[in-house]
Design a protein that fits this description.
Blueprint lengths: L19 H14 L4 H13 L9 H10 L3 E3 L5 E3 L1 H19 L15 E11 L11 H12 L12 E8 L2 E8 L12 H18 L4 E7 L3 E4 L16 H12 L6 E8 L5 E2 L7 E2 L6 H16 L3 E6 L4 H14 L2 E4 L5 H12 L5
Parallel strand pairs: 5-6, 5-8, 8-11, 11-12
Antiparallel strand pairs: 1-2, 3-4, 6-7, 9-10
Length: about 375
């Protein structure tokens, strides 16, 4: 685990790393770094203790035994520790707590409910009496005029409130989200790990939706040389690779997923640190160019932003680096999609995504 840094741990605060819950919090954070490798995470716990970050009086073997007893880890066939499904869920919970805990000192408002979420997505054939507050476009004027004629015997008299009928509507209160994660090699280059915070966002957002917004849907799509959806249970084990950045493929797959969702609100949340450098050319080999902004690659990628806008899908981009080429591309993408873009440090991206998600899901479709 080269480049693993514990600058967020203060040796003077090692007294806090004593209780089982505190040790478990630390263990879950290290699991993010080790891509769900429980054995390696525990080895790093031992190294941290040797360096003085965990007091020598703490019995880490007893901690390990408690993890097994709680069903968070299990023994694999080769005798090492493996992460269980319950352990993966604990990682999601820990990630969510971590992000919201870090939001509080900055004045975060927390979660808020709403009386009206989503939009009226579909008219039903059934009619009912019109009532004050109904939207005008729900009124069936043909049937309302017929009611007026039946009541008065002619069309000379105007419509009365008692004549009006409206279509019932099926309210779609959910929000469909695709979290698009950049897994290109640049996410861990230059001594800065930008991917771990991004993965932490995916885990936290998954837990938030599963527990508080059960009417919503969340899909996670990774994009490097190509795009690939990842099941929720596999999130802890996701890692970057020796990939370029095929943003076009990522947006296309996200759009295709969202087009299958019945929700009133549909959005793509994209976390990236680099400009598009690769596209797939039908009938040809993959086309790459890592220097500057290649018009061929950029234009094909921007086409997806326009298609998403026409499908009612907003793209919110979270840039986790200061790259002039990336900013130029994102500004154009945001303009064409009529979406939004944010710049944040990697350690702040979780707060940005959570705030944006909770605000945007309440927008009317």
């Amino acid at each position: 685990m080269n480049g693993f840094r514990f600058s967020w741990l203060d040796p003077e605060s090692k007294k806090f790393w004593k209780s089982y819950e505190q040790l478990k919090k630390l263990f879950n954070y290290i699991l993010l770094k080790t891509h769900g490798d429980a054995e390696e995470a525990f080895e790093w716990m031992l190294r941290l203790q040797a360096k003085g970050y965990i007091e020598q009086s703490v019995d880490l073997e007893a901690f390990r035994a408690q993890l097994e007893k709680d069903g968070l880890v299990h023994h694999t066939k080769d005798g090492n520790l493996g992460l269980s499904d319950r352990g993966a869920k604990e990682m999601r919970k820990s990630s969510l707590r971590w992000i919201f805990q870090n939001l509080k000192p900055k004045g975060a408002e927390g979660t808020h409910g709403t009386e009206r979420e989503g939009g009226l997505s579909e008219d039903l054939p059934e009619l009912r009496d019109w009532s004050f507050g109904d939207e005008l476009n729900k009124v069936d004027f043909n049937q309302s005029l017929l009611n007026q004629v039946r009541r008065s015997g002619s069309l000379d008299e105007g419509l009365s409130e008692c004549d009006l009928v409206a279509h019932d509507s099926k309210r779609n209160t959910g929000c469909a989200t695709v979290l698009l994660l950049d897994v290109s090699h640049s996410m861990i280059l230059y001594g800065e790990d930008r991917f771990t915070p991004a993965k932490q966002v995916a885990l936290a957002l998954t837990e938030l939706i599963l527990t508080q917004y059960k009417g919503d849907s969340l899909d996670v799509v990774l994009f490097g040389d190509e795009a690939m959806p990842v099941p929720i249970r596999q999130l802890p084990f996701v890692a970057v690779g020796p990939f370029h950045t095929n943003t076009k493929a990522g947006l296309a797959m996200a759009r295709q997923i969202l087009e299958q969702r019945p929700h009133g609100n549909k959005q793509i949340l994209m976390i990236t640190d680099g400009k598009p450098t690769v596209i797939e050319v039908p009938g040809q080999s993959t086309y790459r160019n890592t220097f500057g902004l290649d018009d061929r690659i950029i234009n094909r990628t921007l086409d997806e932003a326009v298609i998403c806008r026409r499908r009612g899908i907003k793209i919110t981009t979270f840039m986790v680096t200061r790259d002039p080429w990336l900013e130029q591309f994102v500004n154009r993408l945001t303009e064409l999609n009529q979406g939004r873009a944010f710049f944040s440090r990697p350690d702040q991206v979780g707060g940005f995504v959570m705030k944006d998600f909770m605000q945007n899901r309440q927008r009317k479709a």
